[in-house]
């Protein structure tokens, strides 16, 4: 019999397990927020309150808290991790770099921020996600052309950037008018990782260097090669946001008026709040999250799914695709969803037609090749979770009694055979009776 303490622990964890993220109903999510200092909870309260207002349950802890644990009894206690602890040299409890990576590998989401005090721990996590921060720990992003003017003074390390990724799925349909204020360190994307994307880039005049020292050698990162904010969508559809600035999420920069040097346009409020809020919606799967259901196929004119097809059969294939809107599943409408009839390589590749209500279908003829085939939908589109579905079905040749009695294409051979027989008969008569 289990002890009373074990039963109490299991009953305590049960609500958290039941409320964990599910692709079928991505709601009621729990986030662990690790802070360098509790003061960040108040200085970044607008961002945290936006998450709470959208139904997230935030658990705030200091990064060195010895009671930190992402999982217990094989179950993850949280659905997302927010690391606002750039200077942490180690995490408390059983949390380490590998634990964070395993958390992402299990399909969970991560927000990681850094600044000039970024530790090797934070840099290591970012590197494993395809992002390389500037190795110079004293370097900041500097831009003498696109910096922000606050009141009467300009700070060349306070970048005003409006070089956003062109994706309504990631940043929302409402256009960002005001530039985003950024004060932090630069990073570049790993050439070996094709899954990581720039969301906010520096201008061609930016560079990474120590603002308090004279340049003795060319900067290692310059121009548009500098990424300020990047995102990663892993192959398991886990999403990661990496920012070189923790201040970008602060109340101060959310509320700051912004004006670029040399630009007469002055905005009463920076674009930080809209940018961060919309980006967090994408990171936590409130947008761009797809699911496919009711994948089926059948012969034309029939409704039941057969166990086997015959070569040259005419068939229909159907699939329903929906997108999570943040509150409910809505029909996903696109004109680039394709199905493959696949054996070693695609024998048939067709674009599915949609009825604008989330249902996709197409018809085609089974190729004149028998073997084991797959109906395969492998859908990848910028900003959306990938869909990878397959259904296996064998294809057989004609049975001996299913062939046509007389094949039209063989009529010339039939004619030749009968002509030969008739000719031989005539020749025999002539040969025997001719004098």
UniProtKB/TrEMBL annotation:
The stretch of residues making up the signal peptide is: 1-20
Example GO molecular function: transferase activity
- Output one GO BP term: protein N-linked glycosylation via asparagine
UniProt keyword annotation of Secreted present: no
Q: Which Pfam families match?
A: OST48_MD (PF23358), OST48_N (PF03345)
| Record's keyword annotation contains Signal | yes
Q: Which residues form the OST48 N-terminal domain?
A: 30-283
Instruction: Specify the OST48 middle domain's residue ranges.
Output: 297-435
Give an example GO cellular component term for this record: oligosaccharyltransferase complex
Annotated pathway: Protein modification; protein glycosylation
Which InterPro entries has this protein been placed in?
A: DDOST_48_kDa_subunit, OST48_MD, OST48_N
- Entry's localization field: Endoplasmic reticulum membrane; Membrane
Q: How does it sit in the membrane?
A: Single-pass type I membrane protein
Q: What is its main location?
A: endoplasmic reticulum
Query: Which keywords accompany this UniProt record?
Result: Endoplasmic reticulum, Membrane, Signal, Transferase, Transmembrane, Transmembrane helix
Q: Which residues cross the membrane?
A: 411-433
Family affiliation: Belongs to the DDOST 48 kDa subunit family.
Q: Which PANTHER family match?
A: DOLICHYL-DIPHOSPHOOLIGOSACCHARIDE--PROTEIN GLYCOSYLTRANSFERASE 48 KDA SUBUNIT
So what does this one do?
Answer: Subunit of the oligosaccharyl transferase (OST) complex that catalyzes the initial transfer of a defined glycan (Glc(3)Man(9)GlcNAc(2) in eukaryotes) from the lipid carrier dolichol-pyrophosphate to an asparagine residue within an Asn-X-Ser/Thr consensus motif in nascent polypeptide chains, the first step in protein N-glycosylation. N-glycosylation occurs cotranslationally and the complex associates with the Sec61 complex at the channel-forming translocon complex that mediates protein translocation across the endoplasmic reticulum (ER).
The subunit field of the Swiss-Prot or TrEMBL record says: Component of the oligosaccharyltransferase (OST) complex.
Record's protein name: Dolichyl-diphosphooligosaccharide--protein glycosyltransferase 48 kDa subunit
**Which source organism does the UniProt entry give?**
Pyrus ussuriensis x Pyrus communis
Q: What is the lineage of its organism?
A: Eukaryota, Viridiplantae, Streptophyta, Embryophyta, Tracheophyta
């Amino acid at each position: 019999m289990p002890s009373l303490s074990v039963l109490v622990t299991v009953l305590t964890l049960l609500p958290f397990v039941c409320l964990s993220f599910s692709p079928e109903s991505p709601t009621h999510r729990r986030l662990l927020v690790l802070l360098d200092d509790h003061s960040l909870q108040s200085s970044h309260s607008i961002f945290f309150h936006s998450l709470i207002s959208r139904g997230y349950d935030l658990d705030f802890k200091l990064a060195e808290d010895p009671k930190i644990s992402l999982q217990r009894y094989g179950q993850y206690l949280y659905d997302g991790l927010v690391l606002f602890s750039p200077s942490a040299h180690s995490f408390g409890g059983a949390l380490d770099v590998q634990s964070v990576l395993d958390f992402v590998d299990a399909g969970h989401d991560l927000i990681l921020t850094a600044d000039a005090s970024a530790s090797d721990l934070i840099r290591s996590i970012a590197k494993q996600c395809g992002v390389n921060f500037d190795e110079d720990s004293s370097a900041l992003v500097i831009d003498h052309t696109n910096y922000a003017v606050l009141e009467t003074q300009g700070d060349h390390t306070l970048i005003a950037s409006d070089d956003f990724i062109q994706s309504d799925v990631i940043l929302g349909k409402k256009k960002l008018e005001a530039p985003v204020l950024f004060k932090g360190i630069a990073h570049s994307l790993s050439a070996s990782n094709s899954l990581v994307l720039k969301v906010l880039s520096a201008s061609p005049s930016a560079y990474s260097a120590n603002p308090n020292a004279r340049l003795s050698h060319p900067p290692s990162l310059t121009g548009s090669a500098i990424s300020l904010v990047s995102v990663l969508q892993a192959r398991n559809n886990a999403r990661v946001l990496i920012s070189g600035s923790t201040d970008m999420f602060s109340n101060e920069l959310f509320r700051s008026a912004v004006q670029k040097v040399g630009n007469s346009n002055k905005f009463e409020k920076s674009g930080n709040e809209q940018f961060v809020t919309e980006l967090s919606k994408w990171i936590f799967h409130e947008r761009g999250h797809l699911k496919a259901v009711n994948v089926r196929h059948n012969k034309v004119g029939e409704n039941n799914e057969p166990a086997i097809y015959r070569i040259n059969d005419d068939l229909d294939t159907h699939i329903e695709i929906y997108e999570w809107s943040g509150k409910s599943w809505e029909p996903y409408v696109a004109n680039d969803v394709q199905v493959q009839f696949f054996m070693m390589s695609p024998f048939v590749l067709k674009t599915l037609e949609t009825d604008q209500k989330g249902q996709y279908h197409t018809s085609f003829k089974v190729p004149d090749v028998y073997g084991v085939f797959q109906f395969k939908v492998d859908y990848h589109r910028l900003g959306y979770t990938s869909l990878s579905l397959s259904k296996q079905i064998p294809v057989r040749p004609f049975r001996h009694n299913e062939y046509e009695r007389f094949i039209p294409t063989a009529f010339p051979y039939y004619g030749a055979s009968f002509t030969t027989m008739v000719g031989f008969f005539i020749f025999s008569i002539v040969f025997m009776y001719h004098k």
